[in-house]
Amino acid sequence: MDNHLKEIRIDSTLAYDGHFLKVQRDTVRLPNGQPTTREYIKHPGAVVVLPLFDDGKVLMERQFRYPIDRVFIEFPAGKIDAGEEPLACAKRELLEETGYTATDWQFVCTIHNAIAYADEHLDLYLARGLTAGERKLDDEEFLDIFTLGADELPGLIREGKITDVKTVIGAFWLEKIISGEWKL
Known about the structure:
By secondary structure, the chain is an alpha+beta fold. It has two domains: 8-42, no CATH class; 46-179, Alpha-Beta Complex (Nucleoside Triphosphate Pyrophosphohydrolase). Helices cover 18% and strands 42% of the residues. The chain is built from three helices and ten strands, in the order βββββββαβββαα. It has helices spanning 86-98, 153-158, 165-179, and strands at residues 8-17, 22-29, 35-42, 46-51, 57-65, 70-74, 77-79, 101-111, 122-131, 143-149. The strands form three sheets. It has a four-stranded mixed sheet with strand order 7-4-9-8, with helices on both faces. A three-stranded antiparallel sheet has the order 1-2-3, with no helix packed on it. The chain has a three-stranded antiparallel sheet with strand order 6-5-10, with no helix packed on it.
C-alpha cells in the first residue's frame, strides 16, 4: 500500500559502537530508484511510568540532562535491558528511581520520539496502587522525586516548565484517562 514511499536498504555498516548507543549508516534506494545514505541511532527502547495516586497526584522526578545542560521535570523512565520485558522494566525503574511499587499496571501506548534519526521507542504504563519504599538509584543516577496534582501538568507544559516529550505525551494521556474520555 505504501510501497511508493518505502526506502530499501542496500548496504549497512556500524558507524559508531558506543557503550549505550550505536550509530548505523545505511545505503538505501529511494522510491525514485536513486541511492542515498541514512544515519540513525540504534536504541534498545525504554519505558515511561505514569505513577498516579488515588488523590489525583502524580509522582514526578527532577533530573539533570547533560546534552541540554539543565534539570528537567519528568515521569520516571528508563532503558529496557537486553532480554527484559517492558513491563518488568517499568516496575524496576519505578522502584529504583522512586522507591515506589504499584499493584495495578496498565499499558497505555508506544511512542517513537525521534523518528528522523533514531529507532527508539518508549512504552508508557499507568501505575496505580502506589506504596512508598526505599529507592535503589544506580551509582551514576541523581534525581529528586516530588508529587503534584495531575491537573497541574498542562499548565507546566504551557508555561514551558515541562518540555520533555515523553512527559508531555504522558501528561496528555493522563488527562484523557482521568477524565474518562479514553479507556485503557
